[in-house]
Amino acid sequence: MAFAQPKTTDGLAVAGSPRLAILRPDRDFLDLLGRDLAKERSYSQPCREWPEVKSHLAILVAPADRRGDESGEPQPERIWGLGIVRPARETDRDRKVVVTCTRRLPQLVPAVGLLGVVGERVTGLSWSLPESGPVTVGASSLLAGLLRSCPEVKNAVENLMPWLDETPGWTKRELRWRDERDALLLFAKIAGLASKDFAPVHSWDREKARTSFLSGLTGTPTQQEFGGIRGQAAENFNGVGEIVLRPFVSDRGRQRYDVEVTSIVGGRVAAGEEGFLDAYYYHYESQTLVALRYLRPTSSGLLSLETGHSLAEFLSRVKFRPSSVRRGLGDYGLLNDPLFLRVHEPVPFTSSLHRTSSGAIYPYDQIYEAVSASAVRGLPVPFNDMITRHLVPTDFARLVRDGWLGARDVTFGMVLDWVEATVQTGRVALVFVDFSSRPRGNGSGIETRSQGVA
After folding, report:
1. What DSSP character marks residue 135?
2. What is the reported pTM?
3. How far is residue 57's CA from residue 140's CA, in Å, rounded to a whole number?
4. What's the chain's Rg over C-alpha atoms?
5. N or C, which end of the chain has less CB nearby within 10 Å?
6. β-pairing, 359-363 with 56-62?
7. Which residues have a Cβ under 8 Å from the Cβ of 325 and sit 6 or more positions away?
8. What is the Cα–Cα distance from 89 to 95, expressed in whole angstroms?
9. What are the residues whose beta carbons fall under 8 Å from the beta carbon of 151, sequence distance 6 or more?
10. What does the alpha-carbon distance between residue 218 and residue 196 come to, in Å, rounded to a whole number?
11. Segments in 237-363 forming alpha helices (H)
């Protein structure tokens, strides 16, 4: 499926005129931002009229140095960094704004000439721009000037643009819907269903959908089993945030399935913060677990700066780690680690796409080694082309279904331990439990037959 390509500005894809804002906070607030670049900070600025309450790309301007340089000349205004800003509560005198996703530049960048040449005069940042607040005139020219100013500014703008949800399908919620739907269809493949045969996805209702994609689907009424695990994930995390439980059962022809899916969204993510997905597939009869951690590289192919740190923090909270010891003659497998990393191609969410997205799946150890190698070489994060071997979704689903991938002999209590680690680290969890009793691979049948012959 082809998507309409937005226009480009100095190599960066944008759609229409971007939402930009100028902020001139004092030095104390800039110091506060610098201490934790990922944390949300708020302050009151004089502009009360913001035409849109959506997020804006914020240009953070450092206060001018009135003392001047050695020659005594005052220093011009300089850009301290960039970030994402959204307007908040309005008062009689000012308006509070929330700044997040801050990108501090290695050094202050002079703002003079940022808008380029207008007529025969080189203009500065102050030309036709507000003292503070949204840029309502010349936003495209300002963005072009930003991209030309220096490579560090261009990289920061490129990394922040996806947060502006400039085009349909790129909002934080829609990208989470995209990932959740992808996991749902991928796990349906493991359960033996083609995307076209998992009918519930085709009746997804955008109007009903909330934070999770699952909330837009209609489940099948089922009878709770005494002492069983149905509903246990939702019950275990009740009160955490937004919990959605959907059972899906069908016994018609190729559309035979019996699965239960639970979405667990923490309170902060449900309130609007970013939250990436950890998706869990669990086959009840064989006690097989596979976990997919969804990663979103930047458009330049870099993984997030927090990739290695977030993985380490997550695994430090997991009490259960699978054993690689074979438990019997017929217990064969290629990889007994349940954790895999899913990297999407940068495509938007579209409600008409009822198939897994393009992209790759990597064993956890492969990404870990790449992150470690990058650190040794002094690189902040690995490029995608440093990680060349991967699985595509169809092959991955087949290998899991046949028992070659995934951790076995995993109790559901152990699964909930992994899910708890996901929630504790601020991510969204999707738990897909497959109750089907289909034949499994990995040599289990060999052991059964040999016992029968004996």
Report:
1. -
2. 0.63
3. 12
4. 25
5. C
6. unpaired
7. none
8. 6
9. none
10. 17
11. 267-270, 307-317
* Segment-wise mean pLDDT, segments of 10 residues, the chain, 454 residues: 40 58 90 81 84 82 67 73 83 81 85 50 53 82 80 82 65 89 94 84 88 91 74 91 92 84 88 86 93 77 68 87 60 76 80 77 80 64 62 91 88 95 93 83 40 37
> Which residue, 286, 298, 295, is CA-closest to 327?
286
Residue 329 to residue 46: CA distance in whole angstroms: 73
- Report which DSSP code applies to 199: G
Residue type for position 180: E
What single DSSP character describes residue 215? G
Tell me the residue type at 269: V
Strands 255-266 vs 95-110: parallel, antiparallel or unpaired: unpaired
Domains of the chain (ranges; CATH) run 8-163 (3.10.590), 172-453 (no CATH)
- For residues 101 and 38, the answer to whether their CB atoms sit within 8 Å is yes
SS3 state of residue 139: helix
